[in-house]
Amino acid sequence: MTDETTTTTLPPVRFWPALDLTAVDFDPVLAELMREGPVNRIRLPNGEGWAWLVTRYDDVRAVTNDARFSRAEVVGRQVTRLAPHFIPVPGAVGFADPPDHTRLRRAVTAAFTARGVQRIREHAQRTLDAMVDGLLRDGPPADLTERVLVPFPIAVICEVMGVPAQDRERMHTWTQLILSSSNGAEVSERAKDAMVAQFTALVRAGRGSTSEDVVGLLGAAVGRGELSEEEAVGLAVLVQIGGEAVTNNTGQLFYLLLTRPELWRRLREEPAVRSQAIDELIRYIPHRSAVGLSRIALEDVEVGGVLIRRGEPVYVSYLAANRDPEVFPEPDRIDFDRSPNPHVSFGHGPHYCVGGILAKMEAELMVSTLVDRLPGLRLAVPPDEVPWRKGALIRGPEALPVTW
Fold first, then answer.
1. pLDDT digits over 175-209, tens only?
2. Of 5, 54, 343, 371, which sees the most CB atoms within 10 A?
3. Which of helix, strand or coil describes residue 83?
4. What is the pLDDT of residues 98-141, one digit of tens each?
5. Residue 208 has what DSSP assignment?
6. What is the C-alpha separation between 46 and 388, in angstroms, rounded?
């Protein structure tokens, strides 16, 4: 993967604690690791042993698109990790390799294409408008997290998934417990089991369905023998959890806009720049804590001048890749005119986020609607008084007090 001379000296194993960072501060441990070199060794708070960490943009893209690094091999291994619990369920698409991964994704692709997302755009806009109507009716101050940033993504992902309205609040609660390390492994596992049971019932009910929502597509695929029920449920769980990540990520995005009035003003005055600006904001925000899911090397592979041996676990950092100065000049500066902007916030390669188009649409709708309808929106408290979620695998504000 590189022309550099392969080193035979192993870098030291660095412990990467689970830091409860606030605002949009870049993780200082990750920044230090990036300075030390493109490939390092890390140990995270849970699991066992150490893993390689790849941070340079070109190397990240290479690893994530290389069949010699396997997600399937991680299952059943206690690889060092951030979460106290192991999130995936058996058959989950996130831990499948091609061709199984390709087969699994194909079952739900129709719901997440540009056409599929456009199908629900008008309904999503009406849902959002109703929430903003309520804000305007009730008047300031308000908690933007409670009034928009939580309920809107829930409504959208559950609409896409085909989750009945009466089950949506439970789905949200389970997702929050799964995405937290502060409640302990047992609580998170119970929440995961409950979500699995719910999606099992929904997929069974969807057999023979002609619905275009995810549960309908999965149920039909199981009925045709293209997927097992276990595979369908595993896929549904990961898509549901990923869909709600929008809440925390847009929480960071709005915190950023509301603490930098010049950015908010430009979005208000130049609607044409909004789509490009969203991409830059998505590149910039630390959209998760530490790292996500690991891979296992199936053979010896050279990356960034380092020889990764067969059987060794590897993490990539999309956050670090998004700050690579070789690809993004002045990476720590927010530049709405940045073009091209090939960020990897939604991943890269076969495991590119299936809901990436949907997530960007939601962010665009929320930004445009709030900028246009509440142009004077601002924080109701000093920035350092905004509370942030503790133990969250995806960083976000607990509340975002605003006024206008």
1. 888 877 677 778 888 998 999 999 999 999 888 77
2. 54
3. coil
4. 998 888 888 888 888 888 888 899 999 999 999 999 999 999 99
5. T
6. 22
Query: What residue type is assigned to position 296 of the chain?
Result: I
pLDDT digit string (tens) for 158-181? 999 999 989 988 998 998 888 776
Residue in 89, 104, 82, 75 with CA at minimum distance from that of residue 192: 89
CA 40, CA 197: separation in Å to the nearest integer?
A: 39
What pLDDT band is residue 37 in, cutting at 50, 70 and 90? very high
For residue 60, give Cα distances in angstroms to 348, 366, 395.
Answer: 8, 30, 22
The rounded distance, in Å, linking the Cα atoms of 49 and 46 is: 9
Judge whether 263 and 28 are in contact, CB under 8 Å: no
Q: Which residues pair with 313 in a beta bridge?
A: 296
CB 95 within 8 A of CB 73: no
Cα distance between residue 185 and residue 2, in whole Å: 39
Helix axes 114-138, 356-373, angle to 10 degrees: 30
Measure the CA angle with vertex 265, ends 261 and 269; round to 5°: 175
Q: Residue 308 corresponds to which tokens in the numbers above?
A: 């990764």
How far apart are alpha carbons 41 and 11 in whole angstroms?
6
Instruction: Tell me what pLDDT residue 375 has.
Output: 96
Q: How far, in Å, are 56, 63, 150, 400 from residue 59 at the CA level?
A: 5, 6, 35, 36
Would you list the DSSP string of 263-312?
HHHHHHH-GGGHHHHHHHHHHHS--SSS----EEESS-EEETTEEEPTT-
pTM of this prediction?
0.90
Tokens of 79: 């690889």
pLDDT beyond 90 at 382: yes
Residue 326, classified by CB atoms within 10 Å of its CB into exposed (0-12), middle (13-18) or buried (19+), is exposed
DSSP 122-170: HHHHHHHHHHHHHHHHH-S-EEHIIIIITHHHHHHHHHHHT--GGGHHH
Instruction: Give the end-to-end CA distance of the chain in Å, rounded to a whole number.
Output: 52
